[in-house]
Every structure is written in structure tokens, then in C-alpha cells.
Specification:
The protein has 17 helices and no strands. With 333 residues, it is mainly alpha-helical. Mean pLDDT is 88; it is low at 1-14.
Length: 333
């Protein structure tokens, strides 16, 4: 018995061989991590199910449709708009998008302000028809003249800084600020851009930068990118490579193509110091992400990379030609 105990004691006293520890995988910078779109895909599927839901042909809905149709045929412009919405949504009738658009046009032509606003949106964005910005602006102006908020906002989108009159720019800013004050975040960056493009002095550039910053603080990707660029060139704010790198990094994480390109550019040039959110990603990987999303500056850089064999890539005439063609198509009007 004592021998057994002694052997057991000796066994416990033997050194334990160290087990190999697996090295953790190197952390990837979040700018290179793809978005998990599963939740978005599910949400889009639910929304599409609503859009494609069967027409409601219940007796009450059919009766309401018949009543609205009679009023519309009698020339009531509000009923014509309602009829177009019923046809589009399948309320009391089988869906018929083309017939719905026809009644929407008739309502707009008969002076209904909301119908004019909706028709302006349809032409501007190509909803159910080919995009026609001239007709979009025409009908948006018609609705705006009747005080329809949606139409005023669409008119603001049509006014270009360089080609618009001071009165038109003032109209655009008025409605953009109205929507910004009511929480429409993309309006912040749009206001900043318009003010920056027409700024005559540093005070006006600072005002524009303030709107960019409001958009950036709301994590709006274009706002993040514009704050970064402002710091990079010292426009409306003191020039700072360090601040520019930090904001470009945030824009790249938010998947802004210009942000990815700006982040890559500063990393390639060694400007701004260390990254904040993880190990610095390879500039080439960032340029590639941005180029695949249509960023012109990133495409131009890839052409040079493959022409000359830079950024750790071998010279590749075929890839250079491929990106040169994509760049040509991207620049085509």
C-alpha cells in the first residue's frame, strides 16, 4: 500500500509539460470588416412583403374604391390623387402601377399640390418612370408654389450652387434648414456643402464646417468625410493631419468610399500619426474597397499602383487596363 502511495506522490510531483498556446488571430481594423447585412436583408424582405401584399378586395375597400373612382372621373383632383394611391397599393382593386401614375399625373395637371409634389419626386428619382430631372423640377416647383413641404424640399435639391441665383440658393437653404431643425440628419451635411461651395470668407467657411460637424456627430458618413477633408486642407477649421486621420478613420469605418480613400491617402503618406480604432490597415486594401464602390480618386490610384507595381502589388498591365476602363465609365456623363 505504501508503495502505491509513493508512486502516486511521485507522479504528482512530475513537471507538467506546457501545452502550446494558440496565438490569437491578428485584429483586423474595423474599416476592413464587412457589414453584417443579415438584419438589413430581413428588414428589406419584410418591407417587400408589405409592398407585394395581396390586393385588399374586401367589400368595404371595393365600395370605397368605386366611390373614389366616380369622384375622380368627375374631375375632383384630390380624389384623383387618392385613386392613384389606391391603384398603387391595391386598395379595393387589383394593383395597377401604370394606371396609378396616370391618375397621379391627371391630379397634378388639375392643380393638386400634393400630387404635384409626388409627381416631382417620381420624375426626380425615377419611381415607376424614367428619371427626368427637368420634369421633376417643373412639378416640384408647382407644388412648392402651393406651400407643399415635400415639394419645397425637392426644389432645394434641384438648385445647384454654381448655376442658381442667390434667391434660389436662399430658398434651398431655408428648406434644408427647416428639415435639419426637424431632425433630418442628411440635411446637415447638405447645408454645410452648399455653404462651403459659396463661402466668400473664413467666417462663412466656419459656419459651413459647423454644419459638417453636426452631421459627423450624428455619424452621417458624408459628414464624417467632409469634416476630415476640412481638417486636411484647413478649410473652415485649423489644418490638422492628426484630426484629419481620425475623422477619415471614422468615415472609413462607416463605409464612406471617399472616407476610405482619404484614410488610405494619409496612411500612405505617413500623415496624422497612429490610428485610433485598431492596427493601421494596408492603404491598398482601403483603395480597393473604395474603388469597388465607384470612388474616382481610388480608381485613379489603383491604375498607378498596377502600372508601376506600388503598395506591395506587382505590376499588372491587365489590372491597370481594367481599372482604367472602369475609371473611364465612372467619369462618363
Amino acid at each position: 500500500m505504501k508503495a502505491i502511495v509513493l508512486l502516486w506522490t511521485l507522479a504528482l510531483a512530475q513537471p507538467v509539460l506546457a501545452q502550446p498556446v494558440a496565438k490569437p488571430a491578428p485584429r483586423q481594423h474595423p474599416a476592413l470588416v464587412e457589414f453584417d447585412t443579415k438584419g438589413h436583408d430581413e428588414m428589406r424582405a419584410r418591407a417587400q412583403a408589405v409592398v407585394n401584399r395581396p390586393a385588399d378586395l374586401s367589400p368595404d375597400k371595393v365600395a370605397a374604391f368605386d366611390k373614389t373612382r366616380r369622384a375622380a372621373e368627375g374631375g375632383d383632383s384630390a380624389a384623383q390623387l387618392e385613386l392613384s394611391q389606391m391603384l398603387h397599393g391595391g386598395a379595393g382593386t387589383p394593383r395597377d402601377v401604370d394606371a396609378g401614375l396616370a391618375w397621379l399625373k391627371k391630379s397634378a395637371e388639375n392643380g393638386d399640390g400634393p400630387a404635384q409634389a409626388f409627381l416631382g419626386v417620381a420624375y426626380t428619382l425615377g419611381q415607376g418612370m424614367a428619371i427626368d430631372r427637368k420634369l421633376g423640377e417643373y412639378w416640384s416647383r408647382k407644388g412648392a408654389a402651393q406651400g407643399v413641404e415635400l415639394a419645397n424640399f425637392m426644389v432645394a435639391q434641384h438648385y445647384e450652387n454654381i448655376h442658381s441665383s442667390p434667391e434660389e440658393r436662399a430658398h434651398a437653404l431655408h428648406w434644408l434648414k427647416f428639415y435639419a431643425e426637424n431632425g433630418f440628419i442628411p440635411a446637415y451635411n447638405e447645408i454645410g456643402y452648399r455653404l462651403m461651395m459659396t463661402a466668400q470668407d473664413e467666417a462663412q467657411r466656419k459656419e459651413a464646417f459647423g454644419w459638417y460637424m453636426q452631421a459627423a456627430k450624428a455619424l452621417d458618413p458624408p459628414g464624417l468625410n467632409n469634416v476630415a477633408y476640412s481638417y486636411e486642407v484647413g478649410q473652415g477649421v485649423g489644418q490638422s493631419d492628426e484630426a484629419a486621420l481620425g475623422w477619415y478613420e471614422m468615415a472609413a469605418i462607416a463605409k464612406s468610399p471617399p472616407g476610405q480613400t482619404g484614410f488610405a491617402r494619409l496612411l500612405e503618406q505617413g500623415r496624422g500619426g497612429a490610428t485610433r480604432q485598431g492596427p493601421a490597415p494596408p492603404p491598398f486594401a482601403l483603395y480597393l474597397l473604395a474603388a469597388r464602390q465607384g470612388d474616382v480618386e481610388a480608381m485613379q490610384r489603383l491604375v498607378k499602383v498596377y502600372d508601376k507595381g506600388e503598395l506591395g502589388q506587382a505590376a499588372d498591365p491587365a489590372q491597370a487596363a481594367l481599372w482604367r476602363e472602369k475609371l473611364r465609365l465612372a467619369k462618363r456623363p
